[in-house]
Known about the structure:
The protein is an all-alpha fold. 75% of the residues lie in helices and 0% in strands. Helix 3 (67-94) runs antiparallel to helix 7 (155-175).
Amino acid sequence: MHNQKKAYLFGLATVLLWSTVASAFKLSLRYLDHIQLLFYANIVSILVLTVIVALQGKSKLIFSYSGKQYLQSMILGLLNPFLYYLILFKAYNLLPAQEAQPLNYTWAITLALLSIPLLKQKIGFKDIAAAFVSYSGVVVISTHGDILNFRFSNTLGVALALGSTVIWALYWIYNTKDDRDPVVSLLLNFVFGLPLSLALCLFSSSIWVSCGYGLFGAVYVGVFEMGITFVFWLLALKLSENTAKVGNLIFISPFISLIFIHFLVGEDILPSTYIGLVLIITGLIIQQIKVRYATKKGAESHSTPT
Length: 306
């Protein structure tokens, strides 16, 4: 099979699996609290990534790094999985999935904005336009379309969903300085994040789960949100003739996700959700146009999968 076809297959598989995780979050949180979901999904993700690293013949790399690099993994593990998923799962606990999922999708805009002070990047008109359009979508979704009254459906939930994008953006900004194997690095981040998840679970929740449905949900999240899809996406980007060919597939994900949310979670999708999501995606597309224009001008850029 041609490499580009393989790239599309891995890319589509990733998009399809990512489209299910919002529903998986919401269904799992019916049986687990957000801390328990983080803890058990963290365990499963470590097991999955360990198997993948072993199959790739890279197990020796786990123990080959310097103390400074392990310290880096500790810091990154604090951001992701610990803080990121802790905040994100709580947001899903407070908001309907159809709201939390699109709001979290604005992380790419947050990344661009944080790159200005942290990476000393300049902001241009298209950056401002992309942010304005995307966050207009956030307002539409968060107010259920009642923009004039500006009354959020759940203020704390919206704040947490948007706050998770800050954590995720910080994670990828600091991750750009990590030159280790990406899968091994991710595994180490999750290993160092596990003691934090365990401690929080012991002191603020409980490690005991009374319902098997919750554990099944945590396994699903650990495998398909935190584990194998990351590897699928890396393979898609590696095999593709042009990263944009598979990168643009990610824009399909939130719309497919709404279908799963409707039929699996049972939420009636509001018109304001569709309108807001279109605005968010439009902002992301505006941002991508800027990147491609810069590439044509000869500037080299590093893109991070969504």
